[in-house]
Fold this protein.
Amino acid sequence: MVSQLKRSLPVVATIAVIALVVFAASRLTGQSSAQLGRIDGHPNLNGIWQTMNTAFWDLEAQGGGPAPKEAFEMGAVGAIPPGLGVVVGGRIPYTPEALARREENRTNWPKLDPEVRCYLPGIPRATYLPYPFQIFQNQNQIVFTYQYSYARRIVNMGAPQEAPIDTWMGWQNGRWDDETLVVENTAFIDPPILRPDEPAIGSWLDRTGNFHTSALKVTERFTPIDANHLDYEATLEDPNVYTQPWTIKMPLYRRIEADAAILEFKCPEYVEELYWGPYKKQPASQGTN
């Protein structure tokens, strides 16, 4: 894991520089929709945003429940919160085979959920995790940075381009449809088996085991409601697991605190013990009688 982190540092540094440049440019054109309203004729989406729902647990409506059996000692702290759901129409249109896999995922949630192990969340899951994210926008570029796991993405706002490689966060081509930012996301991956004693961990959409394959296409729509609220829609298409396209819908709320910021969440460090703890060498004193 350490070597993987070291290899990723140049990429992280590059993205950080790009984000700072975009942020600096956005400061020149206005800090919020409430102040100036537009950038180059388009809605100003700059700001820190967050959801207020239980989609991170389950996209579908459900009545809540006790903590999963692996976390029963946490009692009410680990309990599953009830939620009204964000799926338009109520249910995700799985094929029978995919629905069976979803139920298996639910049964083995703590072992299989990529979030538990700090994998990148993918799209649309990054949007409704219980962490804020920030949009940097200037005349030519839009960058999303997420508090969870240093996730980020750069939206290509020029002519659509094909992805050079498949990744956890996918590839983004964006455009404006009147007042709405439309982002088409493709080129997702299903990661390989990482250790012989673990099953392959595919990308999930929430903690209840809803999932997709690498055939996923996500079309997002960000539409301003007012200065501090966006209407967010994401339509998911994946013929491997869904019988038809389906859509989630929710509001996004601007964080308006004077000191609002994306803070450091050292996710890779937090899971090192989970990953590598069983393989630590015992101190010499414990290996002798």
In short: Helices lie at 2-29, 96-107, 109-112, 125-128, 267-270, 272-276. The radius of gyration is 20 Å.
